[in-house]
């Protein structure tokens, strides 16, 4: 994600990561995983640890798309807001699903140690900030997360948020002390290395030509070999291709681009003192400090692919809008990848038919859900864990094809525009309130000063008091009897 991250990945490859191996011979395994992203590699690692024979088929190379281009933030939850989740499936099942998301985050933490993945650069804490004043909503959210969902959270008032982030664009915040962030690329390749050490076999440059899921032993055909397996796990996201087009078409392809700035020196410390990751409640900004004096910053989403370099000016402008004191920052690297977003906003996890599994739809879900999905599917296959049925209400829904992408793009533009308008209105109201408070303070000070002025001097003793003018007694003179 930065120059260091890229060179670290290349260094890991040069230091002993196996060269790409294409499947060129027929193979028989317990589990075949299609797709070597975060979810697929987690299935492979956990299944191999539990004693299964595993083969991973990847059409290009490990983590070539979204899994290799994420910001590395790990925190509980899903893309679907918690209130909508409760409305959809009820409080009890929502709590179970939330618990699974926490389990996924802790699974990542357990793997992401310096002993297992050197240079993982794990740091603590994540802050979700609001673009509008949300005091009442903040209290309600904290009570729900801390009480009903047993999640450690802190509410940050406006002053505390702005002490950490020197900008007037953000108001209240929710701080997750148990959330963390890491070098996403190192984690991905470390996961692949651990899966290989556990016994999983990863074949790159091996696209799947066809799948026959019928029968006890399912058959998979590649350009140069055939494979049989008792279970197939589809973890290829929007890139499953022609053999599974009906499944891939249930996902809306979304590209998100991110950048790392050039070193900003001391001026970054004057703008941002918070060392964890920051995301806003509207899903527009997501950033954190890396390498001490650089910003890693994600741009808004788009439903159409483009060269990453095209988004450098947009990210520059966004940084300058939020932190004008930084000026126009230099960009050292831009990257992006496509993820699949579901219509209902939840990941697709479970068994499609006997022996055919899916772990997909992780757009807007977070790294923790990929780990949770891989863990859950592997344990479902080998242990009979039935918790995947909690995702049954979130069925496969067609994403609308090209029309859906156009609609998604328009909705995204409208959402960002309405969020910007709401934020501008909130800042205007804040300025107006401050002006009114200042006016009232000045008026109160003027009244206080008037109340403390010295009294008017009294006439000196012995001096005759002034008499009322004669006209004051005229009525008595005219109306009294002689």
From TrEMBL:
Residues 457-471 have a biased composition (Pro residues). Signal peptide: none annotated. InterPro entries: FAD-dep_OxRdtase (IPR006076), FAD/NAD-bd_sf (IPR036188). GO terms for cellular component: cytoplasm. Keywords: Oxidoreductase. GO terms for molecular function: oxidoreductase activity. Residues 439-482 are annotated as: Disordered. Residues 30-379 form the FAD dependent oxidoreductase domain. PANTHER family: FAD DEPENDENT OXIDOREDUCTASE DOMAIN-CONTAINING PROTEIN, SARCOSINE DEHYDROGENASE-RELATED. This is FAD-binding oxidoreductase. It comes from Bradyrhizobium sediminis. The lineage of its organism: Bacteria, Pseudomonadati, Pseudomonadota, Alphaproteobacteria, Hyphomicrobiales.
